[in-house]
Amino acid sequence: MTNGTPPDLLNEWDRNHQLHPWAAMDAWQESDYHPIESAEGIYLWDAEGKRYIDGPGGMWCVQIGYGRKDMAAAIAEQVMRLPYTSPWTTTTDPSTILAKKIADLAPGDLNNVFFTTGGSTAVDTALRTMHFMNNALGRPDKKIVIAREKGYHGSTYLASTVTGKERDKSRFDIEKRLVRFLPDVNPYNRPDGMSVEDWCDAKVADLENMIEEVGAENVGAFIAEPILCSGGVIVPPEGYHKRTHELCRKHDILYISDEVVTAFGRLGHWFASEDVFGITPDIITCAKGLTSGYLPLGACIISDRVMERMTGPDENVLFSNGYTYSAHPVCCVAALKNIEIMEEERILEHTREITPHFQSRLRALAKFPIVGDLRGMGLLGCIEGRPDTPGTSLAAERKLGALLDEACEKRGLLVRPLINMAVFSPPLVITRAQVDEMFDLLEEALEEVTAEMASD
Ligand code: PLP
After folding, report:
1. Could you tell me the CATH number of the domain that includes residue 368?
2. pLDDT digits 0-9 by tens, 225-276
3. Is 258 in the pocket of ligand 1 (CB under 6 A)?
4. What's a single GO MF annotation on this record (predicted)?
5. Does the beta carbon of 255 sit less than 6 angstroms from any atom of ligand 1?
6. Which of 249, 267, 309, 402 is 20–30 Å from 273 (CA)?
7. Are 365 and 383 in contact (CB under 8 A)?
């Protein structure tokens, strides 16, 4: 494919012509992105043949691991049979069968599947669905979305509007009148001496107070990730989701569970909302693990209850939302094959079995003084570094994350640095021995960073 183009030239073309996601604009043509050439199982190989464990599993998505020939064969077959047909006027077996399969796997009455191109467009669709429903119900003011600080919901205008990560917005506009944010839910950041139970009460009260302040008649939806992943794998306190869900029900506010990361196995279940957190949302958004990253696909899954409230006597109203690549047959085949592989190889069961070992190796990193917090659930983990001086600058916090990233990479482990944190979500097929390999490397890397921070 690269026709023997020398690596230096490729690097130059990449710098000069490719604008990458979240590029640092002060030096966008100076950044070197790591060229990756191939992959197998949980490993990646770079252009120089060096092997890495893929700690973040791509971007939290490569559930079944890399290099699956059966996946490649299924995709190739569909490409030859029918690579594309318009979702406006036609349908295909793969999209129909996948919609039925997702409806079967999703909780409660979440039976209606709208296919999107990824997570952002699934969130966009969920929010537009809320607008549509409230317009249909004659409540045009009930549109404000309550979202949360540190929540990440994507990069379209609407999805970025409800994203609560301030620094991601810098110079982009958002639709401020549409959204209100609740403060941090991370139990690690609770005041000294406060119990987790009291913290949970406070966080539920944040929502209650916000609904009161804005007026329930103006609040259309609450959007929440079961675990705030890009925000640093923040696991809300026990009972939080149930209680916030109840509040939404009480005030007729749609509960949108953004399961773009947590669905399709990350916590050992197809969906986490009901199986792990005991709630049946009105809408679930998913993407990533749906195809294990082999091809792009997302879905917005809407409950029967919401659908019923969107349909009325007005014959002329269209659900005018959709993408050229909605329900793309090749992507739907990839999702079906991915689900089949997960079922046949009992990958959810494997994830549940391996989780205690993964989480206990994670917690064992507490012995390093530069580690402030260790948290996670399922095959999701985060190390939050603790700079030794309180009130340390952002630059110092970033340095900790960057040093850890470098020390891991040197040893053949990729992690995802987020300021002073490193997050990981390896392919779900990771074995016990590979979990050990990963954490052994992390321990060595932490030892090196501890020494470097001490010598500063
Ligand atoms: N929602 C959540 C919870 C995510 O983590 C992400 C991406 O990381 C998105 C939405 C956006 O998905 P995409 O990047 O596929 O548009």
Report:
1. 3.90.1150.10
2. 999 999 999 999 999 999 999 999 999 999 999 999 999 999 999 999 999 9
3. yes
4. transaminase activity
5. no
6. 309
7. yes
pLDDT tens digit string along 139-189? 999 999 999 999 999 999 999 999 997 766 678 999 999 999 999 999 999
Per-residue pLDDT tens over the stretch 178-221: 999 999 999 999 999 999 999 999 999 999 999 999 999 999 99
Q: Does 40 share its domain with 104?
A: no
Cβ burial 329-365 (10 Å sphere, 16+ → b, else e): bbbbbbbbbbbebbeeeebbebbbebbeebbebbeeb
Look-up of token digits 């990729």: 414
- Calculate the average pLDDT of the chain: 94
Tokens of 100: 């039925």
Does 154 contact ligand 1 (Cβ within 6 A)? yes
The CB density around residue 33, as the number of other CB atoms within 10 Å, is: 11
C-alpha of residue 118 to centroid of ligand 1, in Å? 7
152: CA distance to ligand 1 center in Å? Answer: 7
Question: Is pLDDT above 80 for 420?
Answer: yes
Does this model's pTM top 0.90? My answer is yes
Binding site membership of 153 for ligand 1 (Cβ less than 6 Å): yes
Alpha carbons within 13 A on the beta-carbon side of 215: 6
Distance from Cα 297 to the centre of ligand 1, integer Å: 11
pLDDT at 395: 67
Same domain, 159 and 300: yes
Domain count, the chain: 2
Quick one: 154 and 239 in the same domain? yes
Q: What is the pLDDT of residue 394?
A: 64
Kindly state whether residues 130 and 273 are assigned to the same domain. Answer: yes
Q: Are 254 and 222 in contact (CB under 8 A)?
A: yes
Query: What is the predicted pLDDT for the residue at 315?
Result: 66
- The closest residue, in CA terms, to atom 1 on ligand 1 is 153
**Ligand 1 lined by 337 (C-beta under 6 Å):** no
Answer whether 261 contacts ligand 1 (Cβ < 6 A).
Answer: yes
% pLDDT > 90, the chain: 85
What whole-number distance in Å separates Cα of residue 285 and Cα of residue 302? 9
Question: 119 in ligand 1 pocket by Cβ < 6 Å?
Answer: yes
Q: How far is the CA of 389 from the centre of ligand 1 (A)?
A: 34
Distance CA 53, CA 430 (A): 10
ipTM above 0.85, yes or no: yes
